[in-house]
Write a structure and sequence with these properties.
The structure is a single chain. The chain is mainly alpha-helical. Helices cover about 60% and strands about 5% of the residues. It has twelve helices and five strands. The strands form two sheets. The protein has a three-stranded mixed sheet, sandwiched between helices. A hairpin with a 3-residue loop joins strand 4 and strand 5. The protein is globular and about 40 Å long.
């Protein structure tokens, strides 16, 4: 007859696996758009949990930047970035009807890093270094912002946090995913990790590239700027992408893909710019 320990040892994996299966959801986070993103995603962490954790992390980052006098120091720079956001955010409705109503925040952090990101729920940060060192045009700012917003629309951070739970499966980890014990603390840590430390998967980056050019086009920004942007970034990093883009396809294949999808959304760009022209 099995002891209690032996029984628990044998049955626990089955219990955990069953809990994981019941906790997982297969979702399609966005509409396909003109670029045709159709991949379904497995989620264990809820959108609400992810947004709350992201908001807390974002506010902490802003507070730390403010203490260092590194938050929104250049008013003209901030106005440019927020101006681009003001045109891209309405365009997010093409992929998610709820997205234009998110509690968007857009801030510029003074840093030499070539970096920018958008957390769950629309928490955007641009680093001054990427604007200044690459001498970005508004079209190129839109290319970066569209790419980062796409990560939030597709909930890539939530997907990666869910994948981390499955990869490191165990009672304590499962409990965190299901809202038990240290769930809040663990999730906040996961948000920071998937945002700043771990590079996105190749699949996630390709999706963000393609959605990004469509968002730019719908906002009235030339989607072909994504190609010149990539060339600038590669040149600034001695022919290689910066660390935060280390899982991207090769330079040649990525530029080819961007060119293909930029061409696909050019009618959206032309339509947007036509509507933006003043009536004589």
């Amino acid at each position: 007859m099995k002891s209690a320990f032996e029984w628990l040892r044998d049955v626990l994996p089955v219990i955990v696996a069953a809990a994981v299966v019941s906790a997982c959801q297969t979702v399609n986070t966005t509409h396909t758009g003109a670029v045709g993103i159709e991949r379904k995603q497995m989620m264990m962490v809820s959108s609400g949990e992810m947004e709350r954790a992201s908001s807390q992390t974002y506010q902490k980052i802003l507070q730390q930047a403010g203490q260092k006098n590194a938050l929104n120091r250049d008013k003209e720079q901030v106005a440019r970035v927020r101006g681009v956001a003001g045109r891209l955010i309405p365009a997010t409705g093409a992929f998610r009807p709820d997205a234009p109503q998110w509690r968007w925040e857009v801030n510029v952090l003074t840093s030499n890093e070539l970096n920018a990101w958008c957390m769950a729920g629309g928490k955007i940060a641009f680093y001054s270094g990427i604007i200044e060192k690459l001498d970005l045009s508004d079209d190129e700012i839109a290319a970066i912002m569209g790419h980062e917003i796409a990560h939030a629309l597709r909930e890539h951070a939530r997907e990666r946090a869910s994948q981390a739970v499955v990869t490191n499966i165990g009672v304590s980890v499962l409990g965190a995913a299901l809202g038990v014990g240290q769930a809040g603390t663990d999730l906040i840590g996961s948000v920071a990790k998937v945002t700043f430390e771990l590079p996105n998967s190749r699949e996630h980056e390709i999706e963000a590239d393609r959605i990004g050019v469509e968002l730019a086009a719908r906002g009235g920004y030339d989607p072909r700027a994504a190609i010149t942007l990539w060339q600038k970034m590669a040149k600034a990093n001695s022919g290689q992408p910066p660390q935060w883009l280390s899982t991207h396809p090769s330079n040649e294949s990525r530029q080819k893909d961007l060119a293909q999808y930029a061409a696909r959304v050019m009618p959206l760009y032309e339509q947007a710019t036509q509507h933006a022209k003043p009536v004589k």
